[in-house]
Amino acid sequence: MTILTIKTTPYGDQKPGTSGLRKRVTVYQQPNYVENYIQAIFDSLEGFEGQTLVIGGDGRFYNDVAIQKAIRIAAANGFGKVLVGQGGLLSTPAASHVIRHYKAFGGLVLSASHNPGGPEGDFGIKYNISNGGPAPEKITDAVYARTKVIDSYKSIDAGDIDLNTIGTQTVGGMVVEVIDPVADYAALMETLFDFPAIKAMFASGFRMTFDAMSAVTGPYAHKILEEILGAPKGTVINGTPSPSFNDGHPDPNLVYCKDMHDLLMTPEGPDFGAASDGDGDRNLIIGKNRFVTPSDSLALLAANAHLAPGYKAGIAGIARSMPTSAAADRVAEKLGIEMHETPTGWKFFGNLLDAGRVTICGEESAGTGSSHVREKDGLWAVLLWLNIIAVRKQSVDQIVREHWATYGRNYYTRHDYEEVDAAIANKLVDDLRAELPKLAGRNLGDDLQVAYADDFTYHDPVDGSTSAKQGIRIGFTDGSRIVVRLSGTGTVGATLRLYLERYEAADGRHDLETQSALDSLIGVADELTGIKQRTGRQEPSVIT
Ligand code: G16
User: Fold this and answer.
1) What residue's CA is closest to ligand 1, atom 9?
2) Pocket of ligand 1 (CB under 6 A)
3) What share of the chain is helix, strand, coil (3-state, %, to 5)?
4) Which site from 27, 270, 453, 538 is most exposed, i.e. has the minimal number of CB atoms within 10 Å?
């Protein structure tokens, strides 16, 4: 085998965001763009010679091209083995499990998650470490620094690997094993959940719809829900992965899953509806006549996790990202377990999970997961919901209402302003930050008094690291909260996110429409930030 050292020049824009490097496909198609980034990752790691690397992606356009390049670069850099999902597929949580299960050194997860795919869509590369989770900032910072000075990459003179046949091949002295992307993951799920109870529920006529959004979870959902658990054929819709997600937007929210939501609100609709995103780590949960917000879902799953065999001994603690509602905090308080508030990004949960301080984690951005892997996990959340419904023998709506009656309800919404001019968005955040010291104690709107106003800084209790400027929080004396931050996953301009939350006590009113319940807070947020006037937008692009 000849190892080739190929000269290259750096790109200035390879700074990993909230979750890896996400860019337009056309950006990735520039000469050596993939090669530079992968070599920069390997240059930032030590001790991988002879070790195993996992590679898999969500099957989006350019997945196959990037995987072949990654395999050649891995061989030239001295990895001993690559494990790759058949067809280049591995959902993000399955990739995390495969890394852990086979004790790999790390993995490359190729995905732009819920962003659209196809030649005009987005692509992404993320490096995960040996615990199966996204690389921490220490590594992503080093990768970025390396991309700015890289002048060569290593590859080998070899053709493409056959990714469609399960089995072992050799390329340039390195073993490449093509594995079934579903089998190990399905086996793991079976250890966590009460499959007989869920199976019995389907057998007794329980109906659900799972929308795989023409993305990676299709094969996983067909196998687990229909084949193993016996849900009727047709339960899984859009179950064949497509490189362009069938020209859809694989984001499981109420905009892109509106049809399913509307169906669940009718008497003829199924009992339960769920969806997952491009790479299978996000989830959407809708019961008959009841949409469950991701923040509530986290709280509910944590409160009921003991009903699933994998969590019957109880959970050690809960972690949520800062903008996620405080609903889960009330569950932790009642259970007497640890509660942690981290910056946005699943990578911040890794240390807490590894240290055994938390078992369940979640984010407002439709992500929930547990210590079984180190990524959020869409199907896991769906299966835990099914397990809870099967054991409690109640509808989603009843379960949610009982939860609010016990803990109170955190009304919650997120308003996204997408593709805003980056300069305008940055100035808005900078100006708001400058105002923060003057806000404490001030009265805003009709009846809100500011309790605190700061820019969130996280101190990791496990490794002592500090992450500053993680989002502006304005908290009020009644427990309401406004959070403003810029997304780290968009690929065009800036996405401004406004998160709003108001707490209504256990004996309060729980049946208000969410936007009206938050009306006065929405007004105060606009007054404070000037979003509408500065961006020229009268409405958010997406409300979740
Ligand atoms: C990623 C991260 C999540 C984060 C989400 C939104 O999810 O893994 O932790 O909450 O992005 O991030 P932002 O608000 O910065 O856009 P995914 O599903 O896109 O990988």
Assistant:
1) 345
2) 18-19, 113-114, 281-282, 321, 344-346, 363, 365, 367, 487-489, 497
3) 35, 25, 40
4) 538
Q: Among 3.40.120.10, 3.40.50.1000, 3.30.360.10, 1.20.1560.10, what is the CATH number of 3-181?
A: 3.40.120.10
Domain ranges within the chain, ordered by starting residue: 3-181, 185-407, 409-543
Known catalytic residues are 113
Average pLDDT of the residues in 199-217? 97
Burial profile 240-265: b = 16 or more Cβ within 10 angstroms, e = fewer: ebbbbbeebbbbbbeebbeebbebbe
- Which residue from 211, 323, 331, 334 is spatially nearest to 262, judged by alpha carbons? 211
Rounded Cα gap, residues 6 and 504, in angstroms = 61
* Alpha carbons 370 and 353: distance in angstroms, whole number: 8
Residue 212 CA, ligand 1 centroid: distance in Å? 19
Alpha helices in 231-377 (DSSP H): 258-264, 294-304, 327-335, 350-354
Whether the Cβ atoms of residue 99 and residue 25 lie closer than 8 Å to each other: no
pTM value > 0.90: yes
**What is the token pair recorded at 413?**
């919404």
185-407 fold = Alpha-D-Glucose-1,6-Bisphosphate; Chain A, domain 3 (3.40.120)
Please state the atom number of ligand 1 nearest to the C-alpha of residue 490. 16
**Domain 409-543: top CATH class:** alpha beta
Q: Whole-angstrom Cα distance, residue 69 to residue 28?
A: 12
pLDDT one-digit tens code per residue, 39-97: 999 999 999 999 999 999 999 999 999 999 999 999 999 999 999 999 999 999 999 99
